[in-house]
Design goal:
- By secondary structure, this protein is mostly helical.
- It is about 75% helix and about 0% strand.
- The two termini are about 45 Å apart.
Length: about 300
């Protein structure tokens, strides 16, 4: 009897084939959700605008004032109209996307990193470490994240750096609690106990076995929190505690235009729509990622 060898391609391996099949299955599940794909396309368009827009539209056009063009309605010359200083609203929204997305991305990445560290240590080791971390977290979680961020900014002062610190600190407890609960479920598995019994170092168990099983929850939570962070940052700018004018940030645009909304609807509508659409895209994408990464939620 001849031995039959199946070739899977040059340099292929069962691990690489399994990895490709997992990614293909994940993408298949994500594509099945029309809402998630709409969110993905919409968010990709916003990111593309924030990257390419400033290269095409000079920053000077976003801050240049023209007293003779105040509160103009949308037209071919000014697609979204002009504000109370005669500045082009479309140009300001394009440049404002860079600030809003950058703040959200930085706050989420740093907040997830710190929350992942605290949640992993707390859930894996338990005992006194877990009690100390969770009691502190419980005290902070009792305060709504938006109110906590506003309090921190009010204490530290306005500005981009202070806003970023406030957003990171206000979201760390949320990530810590979610990641800790996931780590507790993972550490109860038999293969984790077997790795501990065999003398495998804790850091290696956490890196190779614990965190990879929690990555799905981390990605979903980060995606869904991204939109909340953008809304919170815009809220602080709207109240005068965030990025200060004339920087074209969406929240500060709303703050500047609120006194003129009866004279021009576009001055409030378009910055508000930018915030709503970004948050909507991220929430829809987060729901789709949750369903695609959790086999229990699949059809």
């Amino acid at each position: 009897m001849r031995n039959i060898t199946l070739k899977t391609g040059v340099g292929s391996s069962p691990y690489s084939y399994k990895k490709k099949s997992v990614l293909a299955d994940f993408w298949k599940q994500l594509v099945r959700s029309k809402a998630a794909m709409f969110g993905l396309i919409l968010f990709a368009a916003i990111v593309l605008m924030s990257v390419i827009g400033p290269l095409v539209i000079p920053y000077e056009r976003a801050i240049a004032q023209d007293a003779g063009s105040r509160l103009l309605p949308p037209s071919l010359q000014h697609w979204f109209g002009t504000d109370n200083y005669g500045r082009d609203i479309f140009c300001r929204i394009v440049h404002g996307a860079k600030y809003s997305l950058s703040i959200g991305m930085a706050a989420v990445l740093l907040g997830v990193s710190a929350g992942c560290l605290l949640g992993t240590v707390s859930g894996y080791y338990g005992g006194t470490v877990d009690n100390v971390v969770m009691r502190i977290t419980d005290c902070i979680v009792c305060i709504p994240s938006t109110l906590l961020a506003l309090t921190i900014v009010a204490a530290l002062g306005g500005g981009l750096g202070k806003v970023l610190i406030a957003l990171i600190l206000s979201n760390i407890p949320v990530y810590t609690r979610i990641i800790r609960s996931t780590i507790l479920n993972v550490t109860e598995q038999d293969y984790i106990q077997a790795a501990k019994a065999s003398g495998t170092p804790d850091w290696l168990i956490i890196w190779k076995h614990v965190l990879p099983n929690a990555i799905g929850v981390i990605i979903v939570q980060a995606t869904m929190t991204f939109g909340d962070v953008i809304i919170t940052a815009s809220t602080m700018s709207f109240l005068g505690l965030g990025i200060q004018p004339p920087t074209p940030e969406w929240g500060s645009m709303l703050s500047e235009g609120k006194s003129f909304m009866l004279y021009s609807t576009s001055i409030m509508f378009f910055p508000g729509a930018a915030i709503v659409l970004t948050a909507l895209a991220l929430n829809l994408l987060g729901d789709g990622l949750r369903d695609a990464l959790d086999p229990r939620l699949r059809d």
